[in-house]
Design goal:
Layout (H helix, E strand, L loop, with lengths): L1 E3 L30 E7 L6 H11 L2 E7 L1 H10 L8 E3 L10 H4 L2 E6 L1 E9 L1 H6 L9 H9 L5 E4 L5 H15 L7 H6 L1 H8 L2 E5 L2 H12 L10 E5 H5 L6 E3 L7 E2 L2 E5 L4 H14 L2 H11 L2 E2 L24 H15 L3 E8 L7 H16 L3 H6 L6 E7 L7 E4 L6 H12 L9 H18 L4 E8 L9 H9 L3 H4 L3 E5 L5 H11 L4 E2 L5 H8 L4
Parallel strand pairs: 2-3, 2-4, 7-8, 7-9, 14-15, 14-17, 17-18, 18-19
Antiparallel strand pairs: 1-10, 4-12, 5-12, 6-9, 6-10, 6-11, 6-13, 15-16
Helix pairs in contact: 1-11, 5-8, 6-13, 14-16, 14-21, 17-18
């Protein structure tokens, strides 16, 4: 079923960037009466006005702190979530319930609202595909994607639930195996899955940033290539200012049901606060307010669906029945299915990086070689088929060190990257912009040889530029680049005494995003960037 929507003026500012605070998942204060401390998915920032209304009505103040899908699951499984939180509120508990150490910490859930993950395309593209007014399944969508009849953006399934749900949904639908999905069945449909993901040309670590990047490209405000559509939450697509037509696959979707879940370790005061808040959020008035302002479907059956939801009764695809199946699917996605990545790391090794700072940089890079054995670390490592180039710089750019991770035997190359990372040393000045310019010479050669990759630049510097080329000169140079280089996003990492304004300019001119490591480790920032590469 296809739903055409009119552009809405609702802003997505609250959705964007919620996971980019200095330490987004830190505890939010000590236990206190009338306060519920909640670790939540970043897209729930748009619930804050409703939670403010709930505080006035119930006396319960909700303090939200944000985390990604896999990272949040790890915090619950390890027990770290109990040190500072009373409840969790992710888009779904399905993955948590597959992890025994996490499941035992989950108490009473209250399903507050829902939103399926669907495909949004411009009306003209839907008509070109012959899908206007027609029901299409995932197999037909995958075939059209493989024939390059449309392109789309999707979030990283290890960082954001919308990408995670899309990956699970298309794999379950194409395999027809539902909860019995396993490695053998994934391999059986790998050619169709590879077809489907060949059309993905934009990746992001959050649904909000994905939506904003799509809009900027559609309006010509971003130098990156335009993308036809998005795979995202229905609620985000309904909020999109750029008009899209929603395609609901006839064979089913995976739906986020947003269970506000008390932890088993919660105090009696927190339990009381959770109950009061849950009762308020499930009330008809609050449910209608949620539907009107966030474009999510109400959980209360007595509240009728608004007309903007064209498909009332959704077919829900079964979720895999084991953690190993889900983890294997995510690993296969990165190592085999999606277009491979190419990342240029432009790394400040100037004298100001001596001591703890250069140690932090070494650790951040080593963590991406597989040394980080955490659940999140497993998916944030350098992936099979990925091209990684390290370009250290100080007073001048050093020789570029190029690596390509083999899908069948990644360890030798990962060990080489680890060896290079541990040998980085700090001395000299900080020639940021001439070093960045040198990086484009490297990327030009790589792209000419192999253009079909997600390509990005990560710039890490701890201070102001001391080189002869300044930001204005670099901006002029950037404007002369051909489109395939101009559209490469730069992801600056703020660290130490970084020139914040200049880093913002770099991100804006390239369609990238700034990441802040001034109050957290470089490892945390580098792992977060992985969702955008």
């Amino acid at each position: 079923m296809i739903r055409r929507l009119v552009p809405l003026a609702a802003a997505l500012a609250l959705l964007a960037g919620c996971s980019d605070e200095a330490d987004p998942a830190r505890p939010v204060g000590d236990p206190s009466p009338g306060v519920l401390r909640v670790l939540a998915g970043s897209e729930l920032a748009d619930m804050q006005p409703i939670l403010d209304e709930a505080a006035k009505a119930t006396g319960i103040t909700v303090k939200l702190s944000f985390s990604g899908t896999i990272d949040g699951a790890e915090k619950v499984a390890s027990g770290a979530v109990e040190q500072g939180f009373d409840a969790v509120w992710f888009s779904s508990n399905r993955y948590l319930e597959l992890v025994p150490e996490a499941q035992k910490r989950l108490g009473t859930p209250t399903k507050v609202m829902s939103s399926p993950v669907v495909l949004g395309l411009p009306a003209q593209k839907v008509a070109e595909l012959g899908w206007d007014g027609k029901r299409v399944g995932w197999a037909e969508i995958a075939e059209a994607a493989g024939a390059q009849k449309f392109t789309y953006g999707m979030t990283d399934p290890s960082a954001s639930n919308s990408g995670f749900s899309a990956l699970v949904g298309v794999a379950a639908a194409l395999s027809g195996s539902g909860s019995a999905l396993d490695a053998a069945k994934i391999n059986a449909v790998a050619p169709q899955l590879k077809q489907f993901f060949s059309a993905q040309t934009l990746s992001a670590g959050s649904s909000g940033w994905l939506s904003e990047a799509y809009g900027r490209r559609a309006r010509g405000e971003d130098p990156g290539a335009k993308v036809d559509g998005l795979i995202n939450y229905e609620s985000v697509l309904l909020s999109q200012n750029d008009p899209l037509t929603l395609v609901y696959p006839s064979d089913g979707v995976v739906t986020a049901d947003y269970p506000l879940t008390l932890l088993t370790s919660a105090s009696s005061a927190a339990r009381e606060a959770h109950q009061k808040l849950s009762d308020y959020l499930k009330s008809p008035d609050a449910q209608r307010r949620i539907m009107d302002t966030t474009h999510r479907r109400p959980a209360a059956p007595q509240v009728p669906l608004d007309g903007k939801f064209a498909v009332k009764d959704l077919v829900e695809l079964p979720f895999p029945g084991s953690q190993s199946a889900v983890d294997g699917l995510i690993t296969t996605y990165f190592d085999q299915l999606r277009r491979p990545s190419r990342t240029l790391y432009v790394l400040d090794t100037s004298g100001s990086m001596q001591g703890d700072r250069i140690d932090g940089l070494r650790q951040a890079l080593v963590g991406l070689t597989g040394a980080d054995e955490s659940l999140a670390g497993k998916f944030n490592r350098f992936h099979g088929r990925e091209q990684v180039t390290l370009l250290p710089f100080n007073s001048t750019a050093q020789p570029a060190l190029k690596y390509e991770v083999r899908a069948d035997d990644p360890r030798p190359v990962l060990d080489q990257i680890r060896g290079t990372a541990t040998s980085l040393d700090a001395a000299g000045g900080t020639a940021i912009y001439s070093s960045l310019r040198s990086g484009y010479d490297v990327l030009r050669q790589q792209i000419n040889a192999d253009p079909d990759r997600f390509t990005s630049i990560v710039l890490m510097t701890d201070g102001e530029n001391t080189g002869s080329e300044d930001i204005g000169q670099f901006e002029t140079f950037h404007g002369t680049l051909p489109q395939n280089l101009k559209g490469i996003p730069i992801f600056p990492v703020l660290f130490g005494e970084s020139a914040t304004g200049e880093m913002d300019r770099l991100a804006k001119m390239s369609g990238g995003k700034v990441f802040d490591a001034r109050s957290r480790s470089l490892s945390a920032a580098f792992k977060e960037i992985r969702g955008y590469q």
